[in-house]
Design a protein that fits this description.
By secondary structure, the chain is mainly alpha-helical. Among the domains are: 100 residues, no CATH class; 31 residues. The chain is built from twelve helices and no strands. α2 crosses α8. It starts with a helix and ends with a helix.
Length: 221
Amino acid sequence: MTLTDEQLRQVMPNLPAAKRRLYLPPLLAAIAASAIDTPLRLAAFLAQLAHESGEFRWMEELWGPTPAQKRYEPPSDLAAKLGNTQVGDGLRFKGRGPIQITGRFNYAKFGGLLGRDLVGQPALAATPDVAFATAALFWQSNGLNELADSRQFVAITRRINGGTNGLADRQMYYERAKAVLGTETGVARDAPLARGHEAIVADARRRAKGAAAPRKARAQR
């Protein structure tokens, strides 16, 4: 599965051309590495990222700190969940990348998977290569390719967001991306059901023939 500059422009029309040229190579590398390799998978991936990052305009969480962001700091239940153990971890490990990985635990996890020291250099998480790689790894490791295969877009949203915030906007991008990528081209959406129906009809015919044979034999006697 590939993605062209023109397709990306159509899915994210507010993304400037210069940023498209900057982001497309690492985006392509990330989707290839994480098996986002069908039109349906890529459409769902692009739709979620487009919403989460404002069409790749925000690769870093804006910091206030807001009351919600203050909860990133220990001691708090949220800080413990994020693995934030030291004063300043909230800001240090704020959301970065198009899916906004957050917290010391996630920086360590994805840094380890990529072989990059994101704990020691958290700002790397906002650079294009790392940002798209972490987003794609998050996607793959949370089973979102499989959900995309069966068009469970709301379930994907819940796994990313924890709820369905911004669902209408996400679905707008999803429908746009599916149209741009041609997810319906050559795809019979009901093919499995059609094959199932044919098998049922064939079985019924065989049963009917089997029932008719004894009656014919009795008639001949």
